[in-house]
Amino acid sequence: MLKQHLQQRLLQKLSPQQIQFIKLLQVPTVSLDARIKEELEDNPALEDPSLMVQEEPKSEYEDLNESDDDFEKNSEDNSDEFNVDEYLQDDDVNEYGNSYNNSDDDEEQKERPIAIESTFFEKLQSQLDLIPLSDKDFIIGKQIVGSLDDDGYLRRPLNSMIDDLAFSQNVFVEEEEVLDMLKIIQTFDPSGIAARDLRECLLIQLRKKDNSNPVIVEAIKVVEDYLDEFTRKHYDKLEKSLGIDSEELKEIVNEILRLNPKPGDSNQVTTKQMQIIPDFHISNNDSVLNLTLNSKNAPELKVSKSYQEMFDHYDKTSARDKKLKEAVQFVKQKLDSAKWFIDAIKQRQQTLLKTMNAIMHYQYDYFLTGDERKMRPMILKDIADRIDMDISTVSRVANSKYVQTEFGTYLLKSFFSEAIQTESGEEVSNKEVKKILEDCIGKEDKRKPLADEKLTDILKEKGYNIARRTVAKYREQMNIPVARLRKEL
């Protein structure tokens, strides 16, 4: 038997406005323009005055039934249900839109020129077109070029390409024909292209050099027979196996290091790389820090006047017509959405400034000098407590926003660090320890690099009681290899 019962539960749900604000908050400046343009396209009730070159023409609905006086007199006035005046906030919108504008109009109108370059695959294809080949060989060559990855390597098995040619182009080939065509493509520029592994890539480049040079001959031998020992920097084994001294080995190593292990990477079009646009600017004026928000974070948005007038007209005539009543609801929805978006942008600006201002004052000494040793330990909770906001809000700001200072542009997340206690009981940032490690490794004798145990002893002498595994963790975070791989001849 089915039993019915009542149950009360307290749930916390985010409103659509809160969800919209959260999504906008984590959008970086470089993507904010695209997000605003997307909203402008979806919502005709939202306008950006900076994109308008001329005054918008009157709505075709403005004069609709304007001469029908009797209809206007009998229509019900629903203005109490919805007040259009609350959307007429041009002065307020302009105020927040211009208050953070820290650059002139000329600077904002500058566009970054984009160089038109041939892609990596287009350059290879153009070289293939210049070679006199049969139709069959040309198709094989085109298949090989199309199978290369971005680094310029051919990592697809030859059998797979043979199957592709048979099924997709009805061209039946033997493995020897593919290998012959592969050798031709390996002569293309850049040198080392179409190799199937690192060893083949390096050998292709070395064999294009002067083979009468004994250094080149020995370098080829190292890559062919001792590549594993070379990559692991077992120089003693190489000297013994080749019967050479350290000076001769140094010349061979330098010759190999000049080769390009990723020949395709150097030809990629760089315009696709993401451009870092700082969200904040911190300037030092006689030891007084000034924080400004990038003007791109403060677009001058407003609600469309034509939509406001359209709603005013519809609202007066909606009581007599069901379709017009639906039109009123549509226009009202667009006006609401526009106002919510403007409010979310404004709240985003306020949150960004509030969070960055707290970070700047917390790390004031660091922003004055740029010395990482003056950076204080700081976690998300420290800033969240100062601005009376949730930790997740601070995290969304810190993970995607950049600040430009007099000594570089940095991700806000990089200013957060763990605390380490010295022997004197003082708490310092692990950034300070990393800086000391970096200095020690930079000054070390590269022929006898410092091991992690030695680095641990140096830190203990300076008063930092840190375990060896912690030193190894910090070294890996700074992308510094182990001592053996830092060894030089």
Describe the structure.
By secondary structure, this protein is mostly helical. The protein folds into four domains: 15-51 and 81-104 and 270-417, no CATH class; 121-196, RNA polymerase sigma-54 factor, core-binding domain (Arc Repressor Mutant, subunit A, Orthogonal Bundle), CATH 1.10.10; 197-267; 421-486, Arc Repressor Mutant, subunit A (Orthogonal Bundle). Helices cover 50% and strands 6% of the residues. The chain contains 22 helices and eight strands. The strands form three sheets. Strands 3-2-5-6 form a four-stranded mixed sheet. Strands 1-4 form a two-stranded antiparallel sheet. The chain is flat. 21% of the residues are buried. Mean pLDDT is 76; it is low at 53-110 and 267-273.
Q: How would you describe this structure in keywords?
A:
22 helices, 489 residues, Arc Repressor Mutant, subunit A, two-stranded antiparallel sheet, mainly alpha, four-stranded mixed beta sheet, flat
What's the total number of strands? 8
Tally of individual helices: 22
End-to-end CA span: 86 Å
Q: Characterize the overall form.
A: flat
> Unreliable stretches, pLDDT < 50, 5 or more residues?
53-110, 267-273
Share of β-strand residues = 5-15%
Radius of gyration: 33 Å
| Average of per-residue pLDDT values | 76
Task: Give helix % range.
Answer: 40-55%
Q: How do the strands of the widest beta sheet line up side by side?
A: 3-2-5-6
Return the domain count: 4
Q: What is the succession of H and E elements?
A: HHEHHHHHHHHHHHHEEEHHHHHEEEEHHH
**Protein structure class:** mainly alpha
> Major β-sheet, in short?
4 strands, mixed
